[in-house]
Each structure stands twice: as C-alpha cells, then as structure tokens.
Amino acid sequence: MLDQETSIASPRISRLAADIENGATQAVDELWAEVAESGAPLMEQVGDDEGRTLVTFLWRDPGDTENVLVFFFSAPSSDDFSEYRMDRLPGTDVWYKSYLLPSELRTTYLFSVNDALVPFASYAEVLERLSQYRTDPLNPRDYTLLGNPNEFRVSVLELPEAPKQPWNVPRRGVPKGKSHMRSMDSSILRTRHHIAVHTPPGYDPGGDDHDVLLLFDGWSYYNFASITTVLDNLLFTGRIPPYVLVMHTNEDQDVRARELPCHRPFVDFLNEELMPWVHENYNITSDPARTVVAGSCFGGLAAAYAAFESPERFGNVISQSGSFWWPGKGVPGVKDEWMTEQFKKSPKLPIRFSMSIGSMEQAIMEFDPMTTHRHARDVLQEKGYEVDYVEYTGGHDMVCWRGTIVDQLLSFHPRPDSQPKRRS
C-alpha cells in the first residue's frame, strides 16, 4: 500500500466541516453538486510539493453504511484497518478518506462497503473476495479487469502528472489497419484459443515480409489498451516498421493460469500450430530479430519462456509486470523464480528484453513481485543480455500497461539520435 499521511486533511472536507458547524445546512448538498459536476475522488494541492497530490475518496451514505474500505489492490493482513477505512463526517451522509499520493500516479481501486473486517491470510483470499467489492459510483471512469468481459470492473485513478498516453487515441488522418478474428482448437493442448490478427495499413500479401508482434492476453490489449490504434499511430509517424500483430487469448482464466506460466506444451502449440498458421496466412518474417513476443503478468512470464525455449523464433521479449516469482507455492517440487534460474544457469541466448513493473504491485502475496522482478533483471544483465528496464508509478493493471507497452516496443526501435532509457 502507499504511504499515508493522516496528519494532512483535505481542505475541501475541512471547509465543509466548518460550514456545517456554522449552520450552513446547504453545504453538504453543495459538495455533492460539485462532485456530480467534476467527479470523484477529490484532488487538491497542499503545501509546496507539486510532486504530491492529496486525493480524497468519497462515499455517499444511502442510509445503511457501517463502514467503507478503499483498496488499491492491497488488503489488510492484520486487525488494523485504519489505513483503509473511511471516516464519516458527523451528522452527514459524507464518508471520506485522504491519501497523499505521487502526482504521476495512475492506478485502479475498489470500495468494500459494510466489510466484514476479516484480515486476509493470502493473496488468494484477496482475489476470492474481489467479487464482493464495487467500483466508485461517483467516479465515471472504470474498466473491466483481467481481460475477460465476465470479470469484475475497477475504478480508475489518474493524477494530474500521470504520463500521457497519446498513442492509444485514434488520430484524424491516420490510416487504419484491418483486424481478423478466429478461434483455433489446439490438438496439442486440447483447448480452444481466440486469435486476432491485425495487418497494417497498406498491407501487401505479396510484398516484403513484415515484423511480427505476438501478444498474449490479446482480448484485453485490444479492448483496453487500443493496441491496434497504437500500432497504426506509431507506423504513421515513422516510429516503427509495419507489424503484423497476433493477439492470442486463452479460453478462460483457469486455462490461462495453466498454459501461460512456463508450460512446455504451450510453447509447442506456438511453434507447431499457431505460428505456422500465421506464416501460411500472412506475410511475416521468420527472422527472430524482427519478432517480438509480449505479455503482462503470466503473459510476461510466458513471453520470456517462449523466447528461452525458442530463440530461433522469438528474439525480443516485452514483459509487463512479468510473474518472475512463479511458481510461488502453487507447483510442488518447482523452485520459486524458476524462469530466472533457467536463464542464470544457461548460456546467453540471442534475445533482447524490455521489462517494466509498477511501484504499487506489492499486494498481499507470499512473495514480493518487485524484488523478484529486479532479481530477474540483474541475472539477465549479468549474463550480458540487453535489458531495457523501467519501474513506473502505478499498479498491476492495464491502465498502466497500455502506456508502458508503447515505450517498451519503441525500446527496440530507438531514434538514431536517442539514448535508450534504463531506470532502476
């Protein structure tokens, strides 16, 4: 969870409390009218530090509220809920909670109303209870999490200095590529896979072959990262060569959790079924140096594993918050950080990496994703791999990945006069 400074009060809430004390009975209605106009949470600048913004979450009591918790995908593992609990302004329907946050933060959050106030014993319990949480009804910005329309929605928090994401927005005059969707039944995995292929504007089946980007969790990137718009915009401005984009999506979350994390039969599916079909139907390169495999979470781990097992096919890896902690406690007999260990004890392969992870990803887990991610970076760099690495201010979600994937793809296509950015 982020650091909280309870000594800093919201000026707007303090003014409301003072108005009520002075008998201004209309003050509460005025607050809700302001929120209806501008939305929530409240964002205020306090002090001289422009790098921090005071964010105040609001809940309007319908009459039966006993408590409200705010979760930034972290949750209490002890009986102390003070970091998460909203306070009620006495005599009103106003509940609030303030946090002093980095002004460049972009993340997601949820409310738990009338929570049972039972501490979480594991991250699995956090996930199990997510269906009981709700989005912020005063915040119109939300989206579906995890890349499946049947999954739950989360509210979006975007502070004033959050990095701009201009490439995800359609631009007037930019030619659009074409997307083709189909399902594929794998005889190797005995599961169904949803495939979407996006060809660039001006695509010529008989012309020069194209660079290729294989992207896991494609449904999510297509719908919530506008990845096809990103590629069209970048191509139009000359930042990247023409890519054929292959978006892969597993049948459901259970299948995804089984097939993406370091599953050799899944790599066999890529090599023997999916990619041969793409080559047969689309004009793409066979050069691994012009082939990118990418994904987030388990998809980021799967990208690294696919390149490790098949460097002759995949020469570039984009890992967004890759699950390098895997398998955690989920696979008996398999050592934690298994993928990192494989790179450590194997000869260097002809692979380039771009890795990113968010500062808010240390939720209630049996591991620290930031530490394991940094360890993977260090091992790769010690082996001599080219690694573009960034830690961004945000969480484990697509509202961040939709922006960082642009920078990560561009790391493989730097401007001639630019220097690669590597931060740790």
Topology, please?
Elements: H1 11-21, H2 27-38, E1 42-44, E2 52-60, E3 68-71, E4 87-88, E5 94-102, E6 106-113, H3 123-129, E7 142-144, E8 153-158, E9 178-185, E10 192-199, E11 211-216, H4 218-224, H5 227-236, E12 243-250, H6 253-259, H7 264-281, E13 291-296, H8 298-309, E14 316-320, H9 338-345, E15 352-358, H10 369-382, E16 386-392, H11 398-410
Helix pairs in contact: 9-10
Give a quick rundown of the structure.
The protein has 424 residues and is an alpha/beta fold. It has eleven helices and 16 strands.
Could you explain how this protein is built, in words?
This protein is α/β, with parallel strands linked by helices. It folds into 2 domains: 17-158, Immunoglobulin-like (Sandwich); 166-410, Rossmann fold (3-Layer(aba) Sandwich), CATH 3.40.50. 28% of the residues lie in helices and 23% in strands. The protein is built from 11 helices and 16 strands. The strands form 3 sheets. It has an 8-stranded mixed sheet, with helices on both faces. It has a 4-stranded antiparallel sheet with strand order 1-2-5-4. Strands 3-6-8-7 form a 4-stranded antiparallel sheet, with no helix packed on it. Strand 7 and strand 8 (153-158) form a beta hairpin. The protein is globular and about 75 Å long. It starts with 10 loop residues before the first helix and ends in a 14-residue tail after the last helix.
